[in-house]
Write a structure and sequence with these properties.
alpha/beta; eight-stranded mixed beta sheet; 12 strands; 38% helix
Length: 288
């Protein structure tokens, strides 16, 4: 893909030129055949700025207006997130918005689905290992070498341990990786690392699987995916898989110096949620 020395900024009337032929083909397909295009977006760090307390995260103030400008011009817009679907809907302000009648939120990495058309969430029963892990986590953190400042986020179908508030967030993160992996393994779960967060969740749930299933369901002719964190790498891989089978795709990194691998694989790097919003607006303007 080539390296990105600077973020690529999309102004209101200017779409960035993607790095690499595959990215340019993806953008061309999206612009030339928007009625078959699926636009898929992560939530935290992509549509919503990262904040110390995830409960306080809210979509960028211009995100919903940008989505309402774009959504009627493409086949579908999907938000794919590790959060519970209802939480993403609430924090995003996505419910009952004219223009977003066909928005889909795939929560818990696709295990949950919220459709704007019905306003309801569909989901299977939770994995029993999550409750077992939840019960053991407080004692594990108490005796760990991570120190004070770590805390547990309850996510319903998974549970996450955050280290961003610790005295040394990276040291706490490193100290917890092995014991959390052991705990997760004993209860049939896996550990998904992120930006100063370790999430314990059932295997087989990831944004790539969710994106592939949704692209096939909708008969996508092209796919754009935008993300910012390690959990978005499976979705990037899914776009690569779609490309290899003839469906053009565009990979967008919501720029973060914390996750260089995502930046290096992206076709376009934008400056965080504000840059993602600008890209969505530019795309809507291009589609007329």
């Amino acid at each position: 893909m080539g390296s990105h020395s600077d973020s690529t900024h999309a102004s209101h009337d200017h779409l960035p030129t993607p790095d690499g032929r595959a990215g340019r083909d993806g953008l061309d397909a999206l612009v030339s055949r928007p009625a078959r295009a699926v636009v898929a977006l992560d939530f935290d760090g992509t549509l919503a700025p990262i904040v110390p307390d995830p409960d306080q995260a809210r979509a960028h103030p211009d995100a919903v207006p940008a989505l309402t400008a774009l959504a009627p011009k493409v086949a579908s817009v999907a938000v794919i997130t590790g959060r519970p679907a209802e939480v993403a809907v609430r924090h995003g302000g996505f419910a009952d918005v004219p223009g977003l009648e066909h928005l889909v939120v795939l929560g818990h990495y696709g295990a949950e689905r919220w459709d704007a058309a019905t306003g309801t969430v569909t989901a299977p029963d939770p994995h029993p290992g999550v409750a077992a892990v939840r019960a053991e986590l407080p004692a594990l953190l108490e005796r760990s070498a991570a120190g004070p400042g770590t805390w547990i986020e309850e996510k319903g179908r998974s549970v996450a341990v955050h280290t961003r508030r610790a005295d040394d967030p990276q040291a706490a993160f490193d100290a917890l990786r092995a014991p959390l992996a052991d705990l997760a393994g004993r209860h049939g779960l896996i550990v998904e690392p992120g930006r100063m967060v370790l999430e314990l969740r059932p295997p087989g749930m990831d944004k790539g699987a969710a994106l592939l299933a949704y692209a096939r369901e909708t008969g996508a002719g092209s796919v754009l995916y935008a993300g910012d964190d390690l959990g978005d790498l499976p979705a990037f891989a899914a776009v690569d898989e779609l490309r290899s089978s003839g469906t053009p795709g565009l990979l967008v990194c919501s720029g973060s110096d914390e996750v260089t691998e995502l930046r290096e694989r992206a076709d376009v790097v934008v400056d965080g949620p504000a840059g993602v919003v600008a890209l969505l607006r530019a795309l809507a303007a291009r589609l007329g």
